[in-house]
Each structure stands twice: as structure tokens, then as C-alpha cells.
Amino acid sequence: MTDTATENPSTEAQLSDLRAWLEDNWDPDLTVAEWWERLGTAGWSAPGLPEHAYGRGMARADAVAVANEIANFGALGAPAGLGLLLAAPTIATHGTQEQIDLYVRDIVTGQKAWCQLFSEPQAGSDLAGLQARALKDGDEWIINGQKVWTSGGQYADLGMLLARTEPEVPKHQGISYFAFDMHQDGVDVRPLKEMTGHALFNEVFLTDARVADSALIGGLNNGWAAANTTLMNERAGLGSGGGNAAGGGLAQPGTVMGALGKRVGDFVAPKKDGKKPKAGGALGAMRGGAGMLIALAQSKGVNQDAGVRQDLARLYTLGELGRFNGLRVKAVKERGGDIPGMPNVAKLSMSQIVRLTRDVGLRIAGPSGMLHAYDSDDKASLVQATGDPFAGGITEMALFAQAPPIYGGTDQVQRNIIGERVLGLPKEPNNDRVTPFSELPKNA
Fold this sequence. Notes:
Layout: H1 9-25, H2 32-41, H3 60-73, H4 82-94, H5 97-108, E1 114-117, E2 133-137, E3 140-148, E4 158-164, E5 175-181, E6 187-192, E7 201-212, E8 216-217, H6 223-238, H7 282-286, H8 290-300, H9 306-334, H10 342-365, H11 376-386, H12 391-400, H13 411-422
Parallel strand pairs: 1-4
Antiparallel strand pairs: 2-3, 3-7, 4-5, 5-8, 6-7
């Protein structure tokens, strides 16, 4: 069964419109900025957003189909990153039209990159326990505090900032959500090097930093509602079947990475035999793409091993279940309904996928799975020593597999949400919903 077989006529009509638009507008000699300007203002960068927010109001499954169509055509995809995944839908939901025009337009056209300033050293799973403070000073707010596990903070132009604006009310009620300028005095971003050798995450120190009152998204002390919109989009995008891997590839949005002024054709791989090469690599496999590991098992001669075959079948099945759940959500939403807890289920499924990918990948790799390369010279040496060009990717995937069950809300948090909000199970007794934040005990 193909994706096309599951599309309804309106979806196919939209994809037909997209193909015609690409024929008229794609030009590899444009700059990245010029191409993303065309793609974003036409509504094709984020077709899942509403029309008043530079989108087309399409269902998530259809938006994934749009991204795949752009890739198959051989054009550069939308500007990937947390701006498109999280900030844009949150601002589209809770922001004013003026804020949408100011912030979302720069997201869909790749002009600005975003990061997420949510978690703190003492407020991870209990996000509402955050202590970063915002104090009003005329038409601005003064921000002091620390954030951690900030993905892409070193490359971001703006951040989705949660800060406490009222400590004398219960903790969920005194939080506000700001569009925060990362390029200012008082912002110290420190990358955190992981065991993979990369530094995807950062800690961020905020010392007398400032943000305009006009950058308050969703109203004063209403940040928890906006934060939940961000988190639901995060879990849906990171979950199995989320489709968020499709994007601008090596061309990164924003002013820091320097891609905007470069030739857009240099960021897309040439077609072979008239077909666009399929995306591969460790991250692709972690998102349920069993194909890479199947090919690796065949090359290693272990594809007849019954245990390996069973695990590969399980991996493929989990990926397909994620895709089918995405189609279920689309069908229900087209009838005006919803499936409660599906983003949380998808996030849990992705955790299962990455753990299985880690285990079967290392099993296929054999002894070379104990070796890892941390830079380009090490990677070349590893390939030379093992004769296996996939060895580095397998171990990187295995080392990184510990992260997805934690970021975006731990597996335990997802299960609590499903239990309490979907199944109606009782919460653990506490008074944090009625006690002022200033009176709650704080972690040492």
C-alpha cells in the first residue's frame, strides 16, 4: 500500500497544485532566503498552519505529504527547526495577528531560528516549578534565571521563554510566555557536549536580559496554556508518524548559520535516474525507517538470523503503526473530532522505536558497535579500520537513543498524562494547584 492510496481527492488536488507551483517557482539559482520567501508566503512551508498564519489549514498527515512532495520534486524543503515545529503553531493559536505577522512570517521564510527556553535545573518533569523571573519595568520585562537542555540555543535568534511573572498565585497560574531575543547582553549560551560527541543541547544563563511587553504571547500569566500548545506540538512532531524529519536539510534557518545568502541548489542532492535519493542515516532509522537496518543486515550476512529478522519486523511494524495513527487522527479531525492522548502515545511509541533501533542496530553491527568516532578524522579512521561506512552511524544512533525517552517530556510524564487526562485516573494528592508558588517547598 502506498501513501497515495490513502489520500482523499482533496489531498491529491492540493498536491497537484503544489506540483504545478513547484514547476513555476523552483529555481536552483535563487538564494536560500529567496526560495524560502516564495515557499513560506505561498503557504507551503507550514501548510498545517491556518491561512491567517501563512499556512493552508491542512491536516498533519497532508502536511507530511506536502513535505515529501517537495523533496521528491528535488527542491529544498521548508526551514526546519523548532520555529516551524513549535513556535509558529503556538503563536498562531495564542498570538495576535500583529504577532503572527511579526514572528510567524520570519519562521516560515527561514529568516529567524528559534529555541525553547522551558526546562530549568530544578524544573524538568515538573515544568510548572520553574523559577526564572520576569519583573515589569515600564514597557519591558527584566529576566533573570537559568534554562537547560535548550536545543539549538547557540544558533537561535529568538527563544520561546517561560518565566514567572507572579509568584503569589499557584504555580501554573503565574507563568507567562515570551518571544525572547537571544542576541542581547545578559544572554550566555553554553553548549553541553554529549557522549555522542555533539552538542545539540545548551544551558542558558539570563542576567538582567530584557523582553518587550509586546512580545508577551497569550496574555499575562496565561503562559501555561501557551506552553501546553507548544508541548503538544512537540510530542506530536517527535512521535512516531510525526513526519517532522522532512525539512530544509543542510540549509539551516536564521541569521547565525549563514545559509540564507547561499545558492539554494547547492543544498539539494542531484537526482539519480530521475529520482530523488531517499534520506538515510541514523536519525532516519530512529524515526522508524527500518530500511537502512534491513540493508545493513543484508550486507553483514545476518539477514537470515531469526532474532534479527523478528526485531526488524517489529521495527517496521512500529513505524507503520505510527503512520496509520497519523492517518486516524486526520480522519477523525476531518469529522470535527479528536483522539485524546494521541501525541503522548506517539511520543511513547517513538521511545520504543529508538530503543529497539539501538538494540538491533548494535546486534547487526557486531564488534564494531563498540567503537565510536567523535570528529571527522576519527570517522575516517573508523571506516578504514572496520571497512564499514555505517559503523559510526550505528554507534551514534545507539548513544543518542537515551535522549528521546527524556526530552519533550519523559516517558513517565507521558504515561501520567494518558492516565490522568485520558483514562481519568486520580492524580497523586498535592496542593500545588491552590498554594501560592512562593509558599511551595523548593528543591535544594
